[in-house]
Amino acid sequence: METPPPWRVLEFYSGIGGMRYSLASSGVRAEVVEAFDINDVANDVYEHNFGHRPCQGNIQTLTAGDLDKYKAHAWLLSPPCQPYTRQGLQKHSADARAFSFIKILNLMQNMSFPPQMLFVENVVGFEVSDTHDQLLAVLSTLSFNTQEFILSPLQFGVPYSRPRYFCLAKQESMCFPNPSVNDKLLRTPTCLTLNTTRTQNSYDQNEDDLEVVCNPIRNFLEAQSIGDKESSAIISDFKEADGCTPIETASHDYTVPLSLIERWGNAMDIVYPESKRCCCFTKSYYRYVKGTGSVLVTSKSLKPVPKENLEMSSLSELGLRFFTPREVSLICIHFPRVSVFRIR
After folding, report:
1. Which structural domain, as residue segments, surrounds residue 283?
2. How far is residue 170 from each of residues 14, 167, 267, measured CA to CA in Å?
3. How many angstroms separate the most distant Cα atoms in the chain?
4. Residue 230 domain-assigned (yes or no)
């Protein structure tokens, strides 16, 4: 039997290539034929990672003909999230940062070779926006079935509190393995995974319950930064997969300055190597403390203490440090690698 050709994939808002890395890790036979991003620094990193530089420019200048020439089977889209965040203005489609995504939706309706599959990711809040309504309306017009999810890394054993919205869409001629959840928004990934050892209830829990089944943060830390002699299996697998070699990381390079502890200690999210949850890291991590990500206790002489029971005077004794860039990557990269791309 002749092997079918790989999927041809377009990657919009490609950033540094998280979606492409996830696609490659999923085992699906696919080829990213083009990526698009307007940020030149992100494109530098993408080119370093994959040997291919994304098309740099405003997506709003694309035409249906431009996209038709790729004859792509699947599109991956992670459009700007700022129009939908809780802390933003929540202008939705009226926000200029949403215009390019709306342009893409409009182009789909005028294409001779529209995609057969879409994968869309965004923040929680997108699902109640008018942009979301436009997305579903266009997909319905083009005879797509959809399955929508709000999922957290905690549901997959990753100690990272970062729920996100996902939409899977396929043309009606292609069937989802679980058509009973078509046109539904789910908060559990049971129909996505091949893991039959976990029950529905083991996924469908609150964050406190999910922490019990998560790997500890220790498993995602660089060995040198916590004084271990051997890297964890997770780190070893990651390095083997991406060809990285161990780097020397001195924890004091990322020590939280005492001045920040004295001023913002009460606002810090403090976690221990044994903790099974940390907060979402943002681009302002290292520059700001409040709401940008967790900080790690490195003192081995102190037992974990709930944040509410910590005295300000004792915070300086915890040996607080920021997570290193590689540790942030180790934690963040494991969530997009969920086997959503295994759906046929």
Report:
1. 215-220+253-343
2. 21, 10, 44
3. 70
4. no
The pLDDT value given to residue 237: 47
Strands of the sheet with 185-186, listed across from one edge: 30-36, 7-12, 74-77, 117-123, 164-171, 144-151, 185-186
10-residue stretch averages of pLDDT, the chain, 344 residues long? 91 95 91 97 96 94 97 97 89 96 98 97 97 98 97 91 95 92 89 49 54 85 59 45 40 83 92 94 90 93 72 83 93 60 44
One domain for residues 184 and 285: no
| Given the residues 55, 81, 214, 278, the one annotated as active site | 81
Residue 81 among the catalytic residues:
yes
Residues 6 or more apart whose CB falls under 8 angstroms from that of 109 comprise: 138, 141, 142
**CA distances to 95, 119, 129 from 250, in Å:** 43, 39, 44
Specify whether 104 is located in the same domain as 174: yes
